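Hi team,

As requested, here is the filled-out complex form for the S-adenosylmethionine run. I kept the field names the same as last time so the parser does not choke. Let me know if anything looks off before we queue the next batch.

— J.
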Amino acid sequence: MIQNPKLREIIDGSLNNFKKEHLSENWRSFGSARLRMDSGKFLISLLQVIKPDYTMEFGSGASTQTLAAHAKKTHFAYEHVPKYWRQTVAALARNPWFNESIVYLRALNDDYMYPILPGDLPQGIQLVLIDGPPLRAPKNGKDRDRYRTLHSIMEYLSDDAIVLLDNTERESEQGILEVWKEELGIEYETHEEVRGLGIIDPWGHSV
Ligand SMILES: C[S@@+](CC[C@H](N)C(=O)[O-])C[C@H]1O[C@@H](n2cnc3c(N)ncnc32)[C@H](O)[C@@H]1O
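And here is what came back:
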């Protein structure tokens, strides 16, 4: 359970708005590999409360459009499949009301990770969605596919950043949350209304 009072207020406020269905905006969805509808709506609700300058995500798709529409300055996304990179970039280009966004096309490295290059990201990222890379096969311990994603971005996160990990209904992602807790000191929670979406305070008690 997340204790940080500022994050508590943001998360509780977002959950409340989401439950009341006061959202003025629909979750844009296309294709089959997207956040669940409830998770997408919660993401919108969270964005409306945080009003972040900078956001980022691993694994592009419909979520890229939502994040790009809400990041006041820039949304950064990492994608490894050229076809989906083109699809996302084209969707963003068709919609001039999307704020500035950068979708990096990067082949996954030997660690099955999106390489983050110097200068890719600014300091002070306030919201992160980890919805990639896709699962290859069930893994144990630190070999889990998304295990390294959080380590690779910690230095860019603001003190009050919130990180979302999708697919926490899977045993592999539940294992990742536990390893992150042990190694990085994160705090996290999940909610029945947004099943499968882990909500994470990456700094845990350290703030
Ligand atoms: C879980 S998906 C990411 C979905 C994205 N975060 C969203 O909510 O829309 C992970 C990967 O699936 C691929 N993908 C993106 N759009 C897709 C689509 N419409 N159909 C199938 N795969 C897709 C991309 O390679 C992406 O990195």
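Two things worth flagging: The chain has one domain: 5-127+144-160+177-198. The longest strand covers residues 157-166.

Thanks,
J.
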